Amino acid sequence: MTTTILPLWPHILFAILEPLSLIGGWLLPILDLNSFITDQIPQLVATHSTIHPTSVALAYQLANLYGLLCILGLAIVYSTTEPIVLRNYFIALAVADVGHIYVTYLAMGWATFKDVGAWNVLTWGNVGVTTFLLMNRILYLGGVFGVARASSAPSIWVDHSKASVAVKKRA
């Protein structure tokens, strides 16, 4: 069985559930572009039925980024044998989580943002799930779930036992 150096809960969350949610974020605009665009802000009534080509481009670019995050996340959590790599990765994601929540807030405005009962599925993903992931990243970084175990075993992606690195001394 392929595993990570993460403790059990962070492994389940960041190596299984989060990549699955990113696949969902990648697929949604492909399967239902109009809803993906128009549902970004709950309770917003579209003033016209055509979606601007810029919105289409941005939706597909966002989908592409979700796909990229999924691939990078899987590569990092399943290939690293170094706890510091995971720490730095989770710090970077936590910063991005704060940015994601903030720009969603800016687009929604305070009144819609605080009206949690009126949130739609996309808002729950953009704010609710992202906040849940952020809190779990912070708890992991704080050691609440245990620490990543350093591994001397070779990665599933690169056979480190056959790799060699030449280091030149500086004069």
Automatic annotation (TrEMBL):
Keyword Membrane: yes
Keyword Transmembrane: yes
Official protein name in the record: DUF7704 domain-containing protein
Residues passing through the membrane, by range: 12-31, 58-78, 90-111, 117-135
Any single Pfam family the record assigns to this protein: DUF7704
Stored InterPro entries: DUF7704
Alphabetic keyword roster: Membrane, Transmembrane, Transmembrane helix
UniProt organism field: Aspergillus nanangensis
Annotated DUF7704 domain residues: 4-146
